Amino acid sequence: MADAYDKLIFELSSPGRVGWSLPEADVPEADVHKLLPAKHLRRDAPDLPEVSEFDVVRHYSRLSRMNYGVDTHFYPLGSCTMKYNPKLNEDVARLAGFAKVHPLAPEASAQGALQLMHELAWDLAEIAGMDAVSLQPAAGAQGELAGVLMIRAYHHSRGEKRTKVLVPDSAHGTNPASTAIAGYEVVEVKSLPNGEVDVDALARTLDTDVAAFMITVPNTLGMFEPRIIEITELCHAKGVQVYMDGANLNAILGITRPGDLGFDVCHFNLHKTFTTPHGGGGPGAGPVGVKAHLEPFLPVPVVTKDGDEYALDWKRPRSIGKLQAFWGNFGMLVRAYTYIRTMGPDGLRSVSDNAILNANYIMKRLERDYDVAVPGPCMHECVLSARRQKRLGVTATDIAKRLLDLGFYAPSTYFPLIVEEALMIEPTETEAKETLDAFCDAMIQIAREAETNAAVIHDAPVTTPVRRLDQTKAAREPNLKWTRRG
Amino acid sequence: MASRYIANTPDEQKRMLGAIGSGSIEDLLVKIPPKARLARPLGLTPALAETDLIRHMTALAARNAHADSHVSFLGAGSYDHYIPSPINHLILRGEFFTAYTPYQPEASQGTLRSIYEYQTMIAELTGMDVANASIYDGASSLAEAALMAHSVTDRREIVLSRAVHPLYKRVTATYCEGPGVRLRDVPAPEGVTDLAAARQVVNATTAALVVQTPNFYGCLEDVAAAAEIAHAAGALLVVVADPVNLGVLEGPGKLGADIVVGEGQGLGVPLDFGGPNLGVFAAKNELVRRMPGRLVGATVDHDGKRGFVLTLQTREQHIRRAKATSNICTNVALCALMATIYLATLGRRGLVKVGELSTAKAHYAASRLTKVPGVSLRFTAPFFKEFALKLPKAPERVLPRLARQGFLAGVPLKTFDRALADCLLVAVTEKRTKAEIDAFAAALEKAVA
Ligand SMILES: Cc1ncc(COP(=O)(O)O)c(C=O)c1O
Hints:
The complex is a heterodimer of chains A (486) and B (449). Chain A has 486 residues and is of the alpha/beta class. Helices cover 36% and strands 11% of the residues of chain A. In chain B, 36% of the residues lie in helices and 14% in strands. In chain B, the strands form four sheets. A seven-stranded mixed β-sheet of chain B has the order 2-8-7-6-5-3-4. Chain B has a four-stranded antiparallel β-sheet with strand order 11-12-15-14, with helices on one face. In chain B, strands 1-13 form a two-stranded parallel sheet.
C-alpha cells in the first residue's frame, strides 16, 4: 500500500521549536547590529521552518520511502549503470582525514589526499589507455566540455580554425550541448539503421573544417562499433580529433581501451562505472583522459609527484583553465579509488564480463515479446522497442509505469532518439539471475497485458505514493516553491 | 577469486549462457575486432581484502591535516561550519542515496519533494523568485550565470569585480571561451569594488556586472549601488553570495540582483578537500525559462493529489540538445539534500544564530590578532566572517610553524594577488572558540616575532 504521507517540511513548522544546538557567544561583543552597518542586514529572520530534530528525522525518513533506489529496487536505467554502491566506500569517504580536509590546506599537510588523486589518475589512464587524466570535471557533461575545449586549444595551437564537431544522432544530449558551449557548430550525423556509424557518409563529411568526431563506445544501442579503429584512423587522416563518451565504460574494462582504439580524449563517469552513488541526481565525477599531444591543455592544477612528494602544478600556460573552484569532486574520487583497489584488475574485468552476460540474458529472454533494436549479442545494455505494443496503444512510458507497480524501477525510455519507443535496459553486473528473471517475467507479463488487458497498464502506477502526474499543468503554471497561502 | 560485488556463480553463468545459446562470455564479444582487444591484464594494483584496504585508506587519510586535527581558520570559499548529526544519517538512506535523477516521478517523490523544499529555501534566503535544483559548485554556477546573462541580453561582455573569488573568475573564463564572451575587470584596491570605476566600465555592451558579497576578501559590497549601475546600462546584476550568511545578511534579490549564485557548501556539506560542493543558482521569475539545470514543480496526479515533477525541461540538454540553456545533466542533488536538511534543522532562528556567532567571533579574532605587534587588517571596509590580515613576516614562513602547533592559520593571498603577498585570509566560523582564537593569537605573536 502506498504511503499516504503528503507533508512538506514547512507544513510541520511550529513557532518556537528548534532542531539545533549551538553554543552561546563567548566573545565580548555579539550583537551584529553593533558590528555591521544596518544596510547589509536582513530586516526579518528568513522564513524557514521551525521544527524539532525528530521532526526532521521522521520527515526525511518518510520522504525517502517515497523513492525507489538501487538498495531497494532493481533499477535497470540504461546508460546510467545503476550498480550496487559499496558500503565500505562510504566508511572510507567519511574518515576525517578525507571528509574534513580543506581544499586550501598547505600541500605539505594534504599529502595523502594528493597521493590518492595521483594514483587514481594513473589507474584511470591505464584503464582507458590514455596518457594523462584530469580529475577535475564534476560530471560527465563537464568532462565533455573540458575535452572539447582541449581539442579546440590543440587546433588553435597549430593555427587551425576548425569550426564543426560531428555528433551522431544517437548521442546523449550532453554531447551536442557541451560541444555548443565549447563554441562549435554541432553537425549531427545520421547513424545506420542498426545504430552503427555510416563510415562512408562519415568519410564524406570529414573535412578541414571538422575539429572532432564525438562518439559513444559501446554506442547508445548497447553495441560495440565494429569498425571503430577504421573510424579513428579515417578521422586522424583528416586531422580530426576523436572523442569517446565513456559513459558506457562498464562494458569494456580490461577488454579493450579507448586509447588503443585510437581515441584522443575520453571521459569517465565515476558515478556509473566506478560505483559512486547517484544521490538522486548527483554529485558525480567526470574525469577526462587524453593522449600526450593534448596533455599541455589539461585543466589546472595538475597533481604531480616528485620523489615522494605530491604537489599541485599551476604553471601550465597552455591549460584550458579551470572547471570548478577547487580540484574535483574529491569525495567521489575517494570512493572510486576504494572501488578500484577492492576489485583489482581481474575483478574489473569480471565486472564487464558479467555486465555483458546479464544484458544478453535479458535480451534473450525478452526477444520474443519485444522487438530488439539491433540483433545481439549486445554489450552491457540492450535496447528494445515497444513499437509492437504501441500498435496496441501501449507506449514505452506506459510500460515504464506498469513496471513501477510490479516492483521495478523503469528502463530509460525514448533514448536513444533513433529507436522508436525505446526501452534501454542496463542490468549491471551486481544483479543476480533471480532478479533478472523476475524482471523479465514482469516485462513478459506486461507484453501479455498489452494484448489482453491494456487498462491495467494505462492505469499504472497505482501502488506508488502518487499516480501519473500532470506534466502539462506543471509546465503551464510553474509552481516552483512553496508559499504560505498553501 | 569471486568478488563480493558480483552475484553470478560459475554455475549460474553457465546456465545463463545456455539460455542465450552461447558457449562462453568470450562468444558474446564477437563484435569487437581482435586487434582492438587488450591482450594483457590491466596494470593495476591487485585486489585488496577489505581489512587490508581499510588499513591502506586509513594510512592515506592520516597524512592529511583536517578540521578535527587542527584549529582551522581556512576559508576562501570552503568553510568549517557546524553540521548537525542527522544530515549524514538521513542522506545515507538508500532510497535517497542510490536513486538516479527523478525521471520516473511516481517512484521518486522523496527526491522531488526535497528538491522543491530546497528551491523554496534558497529562493527565500537569496530574496529571489526561483532557485534551480543545483549546479556543480559556486564557480560553475557563476559561469552559468555569465552565459545566461549573455544569452538573455545578447551582449558579449561580463564585467567582474576584482574582489570576486579569483578561482570563480578562472572557471567563468573557461566557460566563456567558446561562446566568445569577454571578461573585464573592475578594480577593488581597498578590498571592495570601486563603484566609480564600475560606472565607467559598464556600458551598452555589458551583459552583466558581477559582484560578490561578502567578497573574496570577506568585505561587504554595496549591492544596491551595483544594481543601479548595472541596470542603468541595461545589464543584469549577478551577485555571488554564500547562503549560510543569509540568515543575517540581506538577500541580494531584495537589493536588486537579477541572478544570485554561490557556494552552498556551508549548508551542511563536508569540506571534502573542495568537492563535491553545492552550486546555488537563483533568478527572477522573468528569467526562469533561460535558467540552466533542473527545476522541480508542483502539480497534481490523476486523482488530483499533490505531486512533484521535473518541469520546464525544454530548456535542458536531453530535449534541446545543442540549443539547451546548459549542458548540465548530473548535478549535486545529494548536496542539495544535505542543505535542505541543514536548513530545516537550523530553521528560522538557527541560521541567524550561525551568522551572528560567525560575525562575532570573526570580529573578536580581528581585534585580538591585530593586537599582535606588526599585524594589521589590510582593509578597513566592513567585513563579515573573513578578513585579510597583513603580517610583518612572509606568510609562507609563518604558516608551517603554526601548522606544526596545530593551527591552519589562513589562506596566503600571494597566489591570488601579488600585491597582497604579505597577507593571510583568515576565516572564522561559529565553531571557533574564544580560547582557540586567543591561543592562535599567542602562537602568531611568537611566529612573527
Ligand atoms: C551516454 C551518456 N553521455 C553523457 C552523459 C552525461 O553524464 P553526466 O550526467 O555525468 O553529466 C550520460 C549520463 O547521463 C550518458 O548516459
